[in-house]
Amino acid sequence: RERERERERERERERERERERERNEREREREREREREREREREREREREKHDELIYLTLIKLVCFLIS
């Protein structure tokens, strides 16, 4: 009987370890998704900067053309 209770406690500890592993894995996946979102945001920012630079250069060319 005592051995049976001990085995049951061990099974419960194993189930708890498994739940912990699953929680950890879900947390790692959420962190990976957050990192992917941060990277997408950085990429959007780079695109906005390139776009702004293109506008700026176009304006400079226009001004140069107008004053020539």
Automatic annotation (TrEMBL):
This is Uncharacterized protein. Residues 1-49 are annotated as: Disordered. It comes from Scylla paramamosain (Mud crab).
